[in-house]
Amino acid sequence: MKSTALFLLLLAGYGTIYGKGYLRTLEGQKDKPNILFIVSEDNGPELSCYGAPAHTPVLDGLARRGVRFQRAYVPQAGCSPSRASFLTGLYPHQNGQIGLATWKYGMYNPHTPNLVNSLKASGYRTGIIGKIHVNPEDAFDFDFHTIKEANFKRTGLDRYAKAAAEFMRGGEEPFYLQVNYPDAHDPFLAQVDGLPEKVLTGKDVETLPYHGVTSDELKQKVADYYNSIMRLDALVGVLLDSLRAVGKYENTLIVYIGDHGADMLRGKRTSYEGGTRIPMIISWPGSGRTGRVYEGLVSTIDLFPTFMEVSGNPIPSHLPGCSLAGVIRGSDRPIRERLFTEYNVHSNHNPYPQRAVRDGRFKLIHNLVAGYENPGYAYTNGLYPSADSAIAAAPEKIAAAYQRMKRPPEFELYDLVEDPYEWNNLSGDPRYEREAATLREALLEWQRNTRDPFLDPSVAERFFLEVMETGNKKLDLRYHDYMYPDIAFNNDPK
Fold this sequence. Notes:
By secondary structure, this protein is an alpha/beta fold. It has 2 domains: 29-331, Alkaline Phosphatase, subunit A, CATH 3.40.720; 341-488, no CATH class. It is built from 17 helices and 12 strands. The chain has helices at residues 3-11, 57-64, 79-88, 92-95, 115-121, 159-168, 216-245, 273-276, 303-310, 325-328, 375-381, 387-392, 396-406, 433-449, 457-468, 478-481, 483-488, and strands at 34-40, 67-73, 125-129, 144-146, 175-180, 252-258, 277-283, 292-299, 339-343, 354-358, 362-367, 411-415. It has an 8-stranded mixed beta sheet with strand order 4-3-5-1-6-7-2-8, with helices on both faces. Strand 10 and strand 11 form a beta hairpin. The termini are close together. Residues 1-29 and 485-494 have low confidence and may be disordered.
């Protein structure tokens, strides 16, 4: 299938496709807010304002001046799928970026409407500092891009704020600037350039609550994860100082998120809360009540419509997300009843298609290839030599939850009020059949409405087996130029 036809098929269920002149250029650009969008790597809501031991005074202060979102999620707990989702406002199975860009996964079509180009068309200067990490990168027409590498060695961290100041001084038009920091990605470096000033050790912390297990090794990893977050916090402080120094703080919408949860046990590359739940803080000086905690369910797919609304642009009708502008201005009303996430693949080491839905209390995970062992279990545990012995020493329900992750049943159901760390699978318990049935039907409806190619479990199985057959080869181009049209859209192979 040709890429253009594929793209039309993709968007057929979403409404009007952008055409030439769809976005109007706004008058009075000087009155439009700047947008500073700060994205950190691989950290969940382990900030002090969320109750974690990491000391994060800068981000805590940002929350006091704005809104802290208590239940914020990414559509998929992986770097490229997460970033493609907030840039396109679409779920990974909608935009095509279902796995890592560095493993040749990419969007179905480079002309997929995106946030950057939409804001630029309406008169914004657009910039990014740090990696894009979505294929193809040239689909995003940034005016300014520097520090293009992932920078996991954390070299020259002072460059980020300096580059931001250079961009922010570069014109009088309203700007959109996305700043992507490398912390808290693995390796968890205890201290870089004197940051953080006070370094935590494994003796100072416990493992994360959703780990359920402990060892000296795991505690040291958590300590250095917190150190990475505290370093991030200090760097964000320097960035905000730069924004104030150029005189544009008061007219700037500031958004901070993590791109997904920690690269630790039961975190990144899973559909559990440790993987999909993130910190989200939004501050807009003068916009409404401050120091608020919003309890409603929100997703990073909501950011595209939010940025469009606050910039005075129409919200594209094909976007499945909801604008948060009303929440930013003071509303506490829920914007959705249920929230959906998914998992497909990260690197080719760990495919395992899943779909998930949660409401205010219960969460359902549908394992689309149940019966097969989840390769992501061994992959993540292999990063921590003490993991298997720690799991063996854990209480029975904890050890059982890890075994369930290793070879999942078709459905998992959790009561997130009574069991926030997802230890007790209620699926199959007749006392919860009504809740399970309601969520199963909601999940199917969402898959139909979003034209999910894995609505057919046999397609999900074929995808899983095809990726497993690569033998973890990184450059198998089948998954760039034939998997999506032929597997995802159920056509015959070329």
